[in-house]
Hints:
Elements lengths: L1 H4 L4 E6 L9 H8 L2 H6 E10 L3 H7 L8 E7 L1 E2 L2 E2 L2 E2 L14 E5 L1 E2 L13 E5 L12 H9 L6 E5 L6 H13 L2
Amino acid sequence: VLERAAVQPLRMKLQYDMQPSSQSSVSWSRQWLTATVCARLQRLELDCIPEKVVVRVVRLLSTTPQLNDFTLSIQNWHDGGDLPVILHTELPLSSPSQLLRISFSNCFPPLSSPMFSPNLTHLSLVVTYYDPHPAIPTVDEMVRLLSGLPRLEQLRLENVPIPNSHDIDHIHQSETLGP
């Protein structure tokens, strides 16, 4: 059984808000994200990872030839919620089109990233910060992104995209005028 399991696809969730306090996030990740594990990863979820270490943790990944499902949730607490961030890092994929499902919470790779390949079937973009922020895509940017995803079956957008400026003006006028 153990021999057969050694080649089976692996699904892994690293929950950074539950890591041992005696270890740094990078060293804790290094224990789990070995080359052997990365070669088997089909799904990887990095949950509540501190923003200051996310790039270093992603760089720990060896080639992930089976990875088709990736979730990343950033912890970047400021007054009012987790501030969204733009991530300038790439996953070590055999092919950018191998990803079928991606989910980002409080972070975004640039919308031109190869992670947003036409093969995506599931996309989730969530922001827990409620004010407009430069890292949050606009309506026009989201429309351009979505028009390039012909296989998309499931889409979750939460507090994304930011409204156009005329939409924000309309919202503020409605609040001022009342019902």
